[in-house]
């Protein structure tokens, strides 16, 4: 039978993640990958988690093996509320302000499904985090692509777009601005405090929500922590976070924090989507953060990432620094830097050469929902060794030279 | 701010599960609940799972704590493929025909999101499983409510509706029929072989898909196993199953089996929804079914449920048998029976009296997406003890007598 004709409109258009496809060669022998943003599994506290999991399966089986509530494990919520108090000075969050999700991907998805329609608008960064684009696209809304600058979203651009919507009487269909406030993926940049305040002002003036996604905030190597947008405007900000970067991605634990009414609605969407998250993984994380200081535990990992970031900055400077018009971001945390190469270089087309030189990156075009800047790439520094970072960048330079020569692009 | 105005159309309409609300009193002292369909947690193999979880966290941490593929753990797929061979004689299923989901609720949800649009039609049983209704409703399709009879869906009714759609040129918008083939929730009935074959004929004639949901099939106490619809028409059937009833619901593991193209599309929807299921719970189940014979392990549980079903049938006969026009289903497996009381009795209204008499059931109106038959109720027999089943039915009779008397309904 013709299955295509049976698909929903969205499913007819949906494409699989380019990254997935590109990274299939990541494990080929000799390959150096700056592609994936996955943490090093050897940094996960496997023995502590093994102990706890045995314990809770034996002693708390009536909870961990049974259906849970859609809202999530109250023990995990309690632990997370304590972290918010201790590390962010946020002391007003209650159980009713929080729902536990299957990773922050589900958090993004539930927010999109709960707030967006086909005729809705949402503001996103340009470039945008791929997972957010695919999550929001399930409702096929209209994206307003806000250029990402070194200190966050270009709010002048946003304000002009909001004014246009206001003038054509569509402003009420503008639902939210989606912002990765710290160490943006893929951009590597952090929104400064002035812009966070300005964004809140705009949200109040034009009456929209802010969806603040902060998966990397805990991974700061240097510089000073900036107050979260949520802490500036808890009444109109939905805060998304995850345990994937600070504990282990395989547990698939994310969290949505916000106004009680919105959380209730998001919870109903989750009820339809999967009824509840696994009780076992939730209680496992709950007991872990009860017993250990999550941030003390990951401090060595953060130090490691910070050193690799320094090495990466050095390696880029040394190997690519002299390329005409080249630009790259200098992250104070997180996992990524974003490189912009001279116009005319198509990093997707160049990818084949990179594969042959055994170095991988993510072509920038994976991170746009409009016409992409094809001369960009995302570089991750968390997994390769210091030596691999230097060697990978030497290879990348060879690739760029070869490609530019073939195309007659002057670099 | 006015959050309501920021919600998607679907979220404005969505309601929380009635069952959830009703069962909040289930744990009150002295309460006998025929409400929830949850298995007894003491039947879960907690010590075996504790052993395995410790093992895999220590020895397979690079897998169980890391992101997995959206399709799911190949080890779990391998184990499930073996079960299909061993117990259903289905020997053609490959990895590409299968995606692992976060419980069968997510399976239902992904199927709905991948196949349905607002202008689509789907055929569902009347009464319908609540979880399926809420999952499919996320795309707000048009439901064709097919009456459920003692031997499954009323296919004459379905055929008449299909003819109507054909005549008005809408038949191509009819996407699938959703059928719980064994021990229907809430109906308790099983679709006989003739009807399964007839449904396949209709699917071929009118070119639609069949979504076969079989969470209870393994819980057969008596009678002979009926070949699955999927085994009759693998080319146009999507088979949904879950480990919740045969292993443990807290692991949230479901599976979707079907044509490779559809599975790929469903996988892309899952990629947007949550990226991947937890690696830990998947590998835990994989090692368990590798090491133990799943069905040998649950045989005692099935025997237990079967005995409770017999007790329930006896208790209904003894306590309600003489009520005028009363009818109830006699399940050969699963967890539920469906009672139809005399016209005029509103089981939702009667629920308050039941609470006072300390006996709980699920009012039938929770299981309709059209005007409900208010004189129905779902009764679960898996959790209460034999004594509680008898006492609970005595209490229910008192409730019915009291309610009928007040309303002047002759029973």
UniProtKB/TrEMBL annotation, chains A, B:
Oligomeric and partner information: Homodimer.
Family as reported in the entry's similarity comment: Belongs to the class-I pyridoxal-phosphate-dependent aminotransferase family.
Keywords assigned by UniProt, alphabetized: Aminotransferase, Pyridoxal phosphate, Transferase
SUPFAM superfamilies: PLP-dependent transferases (SSF53383)
Pfam families: Aminotran_1_2
Biological processes per GO annotation: alpha-amino acid metabolic process
Keyword Ion transport on entry: no
Cofactor(s) this protein cannot do without: pyridoxal 5'-phosphate
GO molecular-function terms, A-Z: pyridoxal phosphate binding; transaminase activity
Domain Aminotransferase class I/classII large per the UniProt entry, residue ranges: 31-396
CDD domains documented for this protein: AAT_like
Transferase in keyword set: yes
Gene3D superfamilies: Aspartate Aminotransferase, domain 1, Type I PLP-dependent aspartate aminotransferase-like (Major domain)
The name this protein goes by in its record: Aromatic amino acid aminotransferase
UniProt cross-references to InterPro entries, sorted A to Z: Aminotransferase_I/II_large (IPR004839), Class-I_PLP-dep_aminotransf (IPR050859), PyrdxlP-dep_Trfase (IPR015424), PyrdxlP-dep_Trfase_major (IPR015421), PyrdxlP-dep_Trfase_small (IPR015422)
């Amino acid at each position: 039978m013709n299955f295509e004709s049976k698909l929903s409109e969205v499913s007819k258009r949906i494409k699989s993640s380019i990254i997935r496809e590109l990274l299939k060669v990541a494990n080929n022998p000799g390959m150096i990958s700056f592609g994936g943003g996955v943490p090093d599994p050897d940094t996960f506290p496997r023995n502590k988690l093994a102990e706890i999991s045995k314990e809770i399966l034996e002693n708390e089986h009536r909870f961990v093996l049974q259906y849970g509530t859609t809202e999530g494990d109250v023990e995990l919520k309690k632990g997370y509320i304590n972290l918010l108090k201790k590390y962010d000075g946020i002391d007003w969050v209650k159980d009713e302000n929080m729902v536990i999700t299957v990773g922050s991907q589900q958090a993004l998805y539930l927010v999109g499904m709960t707030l967006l329609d086909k005729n809705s608008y949402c503001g996103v960064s340009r470039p945008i985090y791929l997972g957010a684009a695919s999550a929001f696209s399930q409702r096929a809304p209209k994206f307003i692509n806000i250029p990402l600058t070194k200190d966050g979203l270009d709010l002048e651009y946003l304000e002009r777009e909001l004014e246009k919507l206001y003038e054509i009487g569509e402003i009420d269909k503008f639902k939210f601005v989606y912002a990765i406030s710290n160490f943006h993926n893929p951009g590597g940049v952090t929104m400064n405090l002035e812009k966070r305040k300005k964004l809140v002002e705009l949200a109040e003036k034009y009456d929209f929500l802010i969806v603040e996604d902060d998966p990397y905030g805990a991974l700061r190597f240097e510089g000073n922590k900036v107050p979260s947008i949520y802490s500036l405007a808890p009444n109109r900000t939905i805060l998304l976070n995850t345990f994937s970067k600070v504990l282990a991605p395989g547990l698939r634990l994310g969290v949505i924090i916000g106004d009680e009414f919105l959380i209730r609605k998001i919870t109903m969407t989750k009820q339809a989507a999967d009824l509840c998250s696994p009780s076992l993984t939730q209680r496992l994380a709950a007991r872990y953060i009860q017993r250990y200081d999550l941030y003390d535990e990951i401090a060595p990992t953060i130090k490691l990432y910070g050193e690799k970031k320094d090495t990466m900055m050095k390696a880029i400077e040394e190997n690519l620094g002299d390329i005409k018009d080249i630009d790259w971001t200098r992250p104070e945390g997180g996992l990524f830097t974003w490189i912009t190469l001279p116009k005319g270089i198509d990093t997707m087309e160049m990818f084949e050469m990179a594969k042959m030189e055994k170095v991988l990156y993510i072509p920038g075009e994976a991170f746009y929902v409009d016409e992409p800047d094809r001369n960009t790439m995302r570089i991750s520094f968390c997994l390769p060794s210091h030596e691999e970072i230097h060697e990978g960048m030497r290879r990348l330079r060879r690739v760029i030279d070869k490609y530019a020569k073939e195309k007659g692009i002057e670099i």
